[in-house]
Amino acid sequence: MSKRDDLIAKYADDLKNKCGMTPDMDLLTKVTIGCGPSIYNADAATVSGSDEAELATVKNNFLIKKLGLSDGPELDSAIASVIETYGKSNRNKYRAVVYYMLTQHFKKESVYN
Prior knowledge:
mainly alpha; Recoverin, domain 1; 5 helices
């Protein structure tokens, strides 16, 4: 298995065990690839749920630019909901997992087709 395959397996495990959902492996793979080289950098690979600047980056660079959503309070509440589902006390919230859950939340799977 490649390093990326190992990471995808780790993300799938997080979705199952920490978030209580069965991942769509095809979508998870596409979201992971979409994250680019950031998944290999320990700092960039995770999202800090308590860092406002980090959450603003998720909102602006992913939800608005990548998924094409309009800015509004529903974006912030969706991010908060995903962080809550992932577990606020969980220190390692992987970016690919957060992006995967946000993609599903907004039903924007078509962006990755």
